Amino acid sequence: MxxxxxxxxxxxxxxxxxxxxxxxxxxxxxxxxxxxPAVGGGSSFGEFTDNGIQVATKNRHPIDVMRTLAHxxxxxxxxxxxxxxxxxxxxxxxxxxxxxxxxxxxRFGKAYPECFTLQSxxxxxx
Length: 126
Known about the structure:
By secondary structure, the protein is mostly helical. Helix content is 48%, strand content 10%.
């Protein structure tokens, strides 16, 4: 395993731990990082379904991948809380997922500021 892969895996583990805490999650859904430019029939960077979460990674910065994962984990929490799921742009469901993922990423950035300075190509999902 390359050093970049080890660092990325550690960053993702730290984000998942933070999401569990922030969203008060006891269990996590199945999470798949997909080596594709998009998921959901090519229409999105992330997707939450009954089978879990898929996040596209190809040619994306890890922080962008992590923000997408946080967004989809908010949808998971919404579903657990019995909220009606509406994936339409601008819906309350989407706006809450966007806002909450943004807050999580700000907290992540404060806890792990070095993750936001990774600018060399080994840290881009290829």
